[in-house]
Structure formats: structure tokens, C-alpha cells
Amino acid sequence: NQVNAVIEAGLGPQIACFAHDQFSIPKGNLSEPDGPSLYIARSCQEIRVHYFEFEDGLYYLTTENGVVYQTFCDMTTNGGGWTLCTLGDRWTSQQGSNPLRPDGDGNWNPGYYDIKAQDMSVWYIPNNKPMKDWNPTAILRYHTETHFLSQYGGNLYELYHRYPVKYNVGEPLTNNGPSIPIVYDHGDKETTKAFYGPYAQREFEPGFISFRAINLERAAMAICSGIIPKGRQVDAYCIGGGGHFPEAAPKQCGDFTSFAWNGYGTHKGWSASKDMLEAAVLLFYC
Amino acid sequence: NQVNAVIEAGLGPQIACFAHDQFSIPKGNLSEPDGPSLYIARSCQEIRVHYFEFEDGLYYLTTENGVVYQTFCDMTTNGGGWTLCTLGDRWTSQQGSNPLRPDGDGNWNPGYYDIKAQDMSVWYIPNNKPMKDWNPTAILRYHTETHFLSQYGGNLYELYHRYPVKYNVGEPLTNNGPSIPIVYDHGDKETTKAFYGPYAQREFEPGFISFRAINLERAAMAICSGIIPKGRQVDAYCIGGGGHFPEAAPKQCGDFTSFAWNGYGTHKGWSASKDMLEAAVLLFYC
Amino acid sequence: NQVNAVIEAGLGPQIACFAHDQFSIPKGNLSEPDGPSLYIARSCQEIRVHYFEFEDGLYYLTTENGVVYQTFCDMTTNGGGWTLCTLGDRWTSQQGSNPLRPDGDGNWNPGYYDIKAQDMSVWYIPNNKPMKDWNPTAILRYHTETHFLSQYGGNLYELYHRYPVKYNVGEPLTNNGPSIPIVYDHGDKETTKAFYGPYAQREFEPGFISFRAINLERAAMAICSGIIPKGRQVDAYCIGGGGHFPEAAPKQCGDFTSFAWNGYGTHKGWSASKDMLEAAVLLFYC
């Protein structure tokens, strides 16, 4: 028969098809009023589509390997189904310890690499806000709609394998990673631009999210959020730098990074605004 | 003294005794009405025995290393104390990415390797059911009673170290892993058999759970659930295949595996029933 | 004295800038009545300071890499903000499988290595107590106030990189790790001493927590809790032994360690009290 023929020809089946599971068919409204349920779902999108959950909040997800974990689902932006995959509030000061560097040995939010997604969403929320206030108090929210992640392996873990965030991978501008146009959910190009320092504003255009930007010293930054770099001083407007910073002088506690080069939150020279420095950045997949 | 004598003789103490902790003595009924409590327990069995929790649901467990995690406990089947150790709903289509392969680099549900157990239980539940409906809507539930896991290291992580699920580890039938008789909690041998395609039914006997089955191409599958293989077309009735599939042609999303070789859910030829294809498989330890 | 000598022999001061985030400014009382909130906080201390949570219980924390996990926060002892970083109830019997050994390949509670802390707290709670009874039923609770962790990398993961818990790292007493004076929250030096066997009591002084103690066979133990070793039989009063125990004879389940060398819980000879053997040890950072 057909199986025999194919197997004898050395053609065993090999399938990788995660985002669209043809075996999953919704069975009705199964949401539960009394607390979170352990759904068998790899992403917030699956919870929305298969279990009809439409409220923002914490949900249980299960990875391909059966790891159960909890994360925040944005069930409202642009149709909902956005999975929080990583977050941080100090990326501007973490050049030696990059929360987005896939070749590090750190532990990861399972969603960071387990989910196969098409688009990303980014939230800037003021520090020290509880979850229920994240959406209403966000100072910037935007998402992509180009399905660009499908081209780069389906998540940032895969994207950064293709565009490593480390020293000496290439030239500024020439070897930067992809830049993707964004759609604003809160704020616009002008507010995006205004978060950065006046000198930095001359070096980028708002309206994009950009990955792996290289500076004039050949060090790399992970994300330029809300902008596309047009210059080489990417330290002043990109975050999550990683790899080797050559000849970098060790800095003392209390010093600031390039985001605060001309004073903390002064919004002068290269210094970003206080609002941006005091915000956490949340990355979502969908 | 005695310690000196023994230590000087090179006999330092070395103990590994996890499942039965002689230091743990129940102190009374300590269950809490107001939400899950963080018990210091390595398994659902310990929660049942030491904390007198008898309801199915999510519980906190702590690993040997103090990792706190949550998983589902079946507190009713055959006396209760079954810990959900892994689950998946696409194992029939995951031959290159095996959720049970212990030599992969994936993250695991801590219970998969942390718990030392004696028996296993398996549930088939229709896709997209919330937790509260798992038990009542299961299409198949069975468990072992032979304490076989004790012979293979106490969990699947250890069992698969002894029986690696990879290419070219031996001959079909001759080098398959252990097959263990099962006791049915829902369904029976006939319903088990009926889930698989007519051609597949000629190649196995129901009433067992079998591990590491090898096909005629020397590729390996992780589990033959509910059956013992008597043939070489194990792709059609075993799941969680792993390792190298020689000369495999890449297939596109939307293709089916051997479980649906003669059409999706047709239950003809090698094709399994739609019920099986649209069910998630949950594995428990006790 | 010996403590000073050991501390002064340690590594030079290292600046770690995590515990005090200059970008984080409290914005008001944001605690939520309806269940735990996903705060963006690396430690219980941050939750206390930035989100004004003052109740003991389970809280969500997020690691530097955005991993969301839950752990127990002690929000009351000495001002509060203590993060449970690891726990275990069988350390006296785990010499081949050390829950504190940083060079193992086990998974860890993220707080164990993610948090940068200054001090430690230790609780002994009777086995099989639910979380709400931990504090009131503890048989011993103490904490440090010297900020010693700052000198050793900010957590035990870093401390044990500097003082590896393995065979043949040095001589007893001469090469033991640091010993830090403690302040009692429940119990005192006399009750500490009384937990150990009469022979063991001759070999230590209470009122300290000590790290990496070496025995006369050159094997190492991770922690001497509540005491500073003055002898070489550290197996009888230190826990979490790791590394290679030379020529160790395998023992059967049911055997006891040195803590019960002269009978289980007899409190005679080298045997510790039944209360200590039947208690779990919880380690906190602050």
C-alpha cells in the first residue's frame, strides 16, 4: 500500500506545523467562572480561539514538552490572542546581561521559544504598576501586522539565532537585522520620537520595530523599539545590548547608560525622557 | 566511636530513598479551603498521603531542588495520588520534535524527571476541554499496577535513558522496550483497538502500554498506548517518534502522519479514528 | 576571631546594582484585593517596597529574563521582603544529590540565582504543615544582618561558585567557607544546640550560619545551620553534602545518615532530635 511504498522509499513522515493545528476544533464555550483553568494550549491565541476566553489576565499555558506555566494574555488588542513572552524594566542599563540574547545560558520564559507566532506587540508601562493597570496606563503600545515572524522562525529565539546579538557580526546599518512597520494602539510616531533625546531623534525614523542594530564600535543591540535606525549611535535609542563591548570602562553603580548620557531623564542631548527610563517594556507574540 | 570507625573505613553515608520518606508522618487534616496551598511535596501522592487532599485539581509541588511548580493531580483513580507529568495533543504529528525524548534540549515539566514513581496512568481527552471536564469526557483511561517504573529508574526520563528513542538502536520487535499490562478505568480492549485503523489492528494486541517501538526503517517511537506491537509498521499505532528519520522528505503543513495515511479520521486502511486524532494524551505517575 | 578571619579571607567586595533600582519609584498603593497580581518584581523585597504588599504568602516574581514564577514571601520578619529561594525536607539524607550544589545540572528555583540579596533567613518547620502554619509552628527561625551576601555575589548560587561543595577542596576547618553571626526570630542558641546530638554539640558553637564545611575525609557539606563548626565530624551537624564521597558503600532505603547515627531521633550520641529530623528547612534571601 501507500505507507509501505513511501516507507520503503525512505520517506518517513516529518511534519512541523504548530501555529495552525488542523486537529483542534472548538467544542463550545467552556470558560470557567471560578479561577484559571489548566487548558492544553500553547499560546494565548489558542486559548482565545479554542476556549473562548476574551479577558486580559493570567492564563496557564503548556509547552510542547508539557511544561505548565502562567503568563499574561492580551485578549483585546487587534482581535486579541497576544502572549506575553518576556518583559523587563532595566534593559537600558543591561549591556552585559542581555535578556533577549538567545545564546546565553539563562532560563527563559517558555513562551519565548515555545510559541510559533507571526506578529509582535510591545507595551511600555510605567514602573511599579500592577497588572490590571498595565493596559490603561501604558505610555506606548503598538503591534506589527506583516506576519514577519513567520520568515524568521516564528519567535525571537529563532530570529536571534539568525541575527546574533554579539560583538563583531558586521557593520552598522549594513548588517542590521530586519525593521518592520508598526501600527499604533496607544501613541503615535510623534510620541515615539519624543521619548528619545534630541540628538538621538536625528538618527532614526519612528514607525518601525527593528532588530539587531550595530553601533560604530561593532557591538550589537537587540531591539530598537518603535524606530528604524539611520545612524551609528544605536546605544542611545536601542535596548538589550549584548555581547562584548570592547574597551568599555567598568561603570559604577549610579552611573547611567547612553539613554541618560546627558543626565538622567533630562531629555537633553542624548538623554531619553524620564517617562521612558521609568517604564517596563513588555513583548508579546501573536 | 562508631562514626569515626565507619568514616575512617571510607564508608560515608550515601542514601537515595525518595518515594518513601521515613521522616514524614502526617500531622492531621491540614487542607485549606481558601485556594491552593504551597505544600512541601514532591508528588500528588505525597499531597494525598501527608496533607489529606482528595480532590482532583491543580496543586503546587516542589522539586528536590526547591523549584515550585503547579500541575494537575488525579486524586481519585485507583486510590488517587497520580501526578500529571506531561501532556500533548499533537504527538501523532511530532516525529521530528519528540515531547518524550529525554536526550533533547527542551525544557521539561519538572515532574517528568523529579518524581520517583512506580506506576503510570494515561488519559485520552477530547481536544479543547477545560480541566474540570477532563475526567468525565475522557474517551480512554487506564493505569498499570505492576510497579514497573521501579525497575526502570522511577520515571520516563530514566526509562528513556535505558531505551533511547532514536534512529538505529536495534531491530523491530527484537529491540523494542518493555510492554506492561494495563487495567482499564474507562474503556476496554475493544474500544482501545477500535481507535486505530483496520490495517493497524492486525499488528498489535490491546491491553498493554509499550515503550520504544522500532519500525522497519529502524526509527523509534516513544509510546504505543494501550497496545503491544506485533509488527513493524509502528508509525501507525505508536506516538512520540524521535530521532533521525533517514531520507525523510520535508512535508508541508496540512499533511498528515501515518495515523491519517488513508485520509484524516476516515478509520480506513491505516487511518486512526477521528476521536483519537482529536484527543490530547495525558501521562501520570504514581 | 575566626569569623572575621574567614570573612576577610573571602573575595573582595563586589558591586551589584540590582537590589536598588534607581529607575523604580513607588507610585502609590496599588495592591489588589482579588487574588495575586503579576508584578514586575525580581524579589519579595521589590514587591514590598514598590507595591506595598505586607502580607506573607505566595507572590509572582519575574526574573531578569522575564520568567514568571511564584514563591513564598515573608513580609513580616525584621521589616519583611524575604524571598523563599529553596526548601527541602530530606537534606540530611541527600549526600549524593545536593539541593544546594550549584555545579549540578538540576533545575533551580529561579530565585536561587536570579535575586541579588544581602542577607539570609532560615526557617525550620515541622514536616507536612501547610503554608499558613509555617511561621506559627516553626521550631527555629533566624536571620543574618551583616549583608554578607553582597561579598559573595549576592546569592548562594554565586557563593557556592566561590566555595564549591565537592570532594577534596581542602582541609577541615582550614578551608571551610564563611560563618556569619545570626539574630534569632524564634528560638535561641540553647534551642539551636539542643537540636543536635550530645556528641555533635561538643564540636560546634551556636549563633552562626556556616557555609561549605569539610569533614576529615575531605568531603564537603553545604550549610551548617545555626552553628559554626569547631570539629571535623561535620556530617553530624551540617546538611546538603555534595560531591564525591570516596569509597562510600551504597546504603539501602531505611538507613539513616549521621544525623541519626545512634538511632533515629534518639537524641543520644551523634543522633539529632526527632524535631529536627522531621522538619523542613526553608532558605530566604533579602
TrEMBL record, chains A, B, C:
Keywords from the named record: Calcium, Disulfide bond, Lectin, Metal-binding
Molecular function terms from GO: metal ion binding; oligosaccharide binding
GO CC field: extracellular space
Stored InterPro entries: Fibrinogen-like_C, Fibrinogen_a/b/g_C_1, Fibrinogen_a/b/g_C_dom
Domain Fibrinogen C-terminal: 35-84
NCBIfam families: GGGWT_bact
Protein's name according to its UniProt entry: Fibrinogen C-terminal domain-containing protein
Organism of provenance: Hucho hucho (huchen)
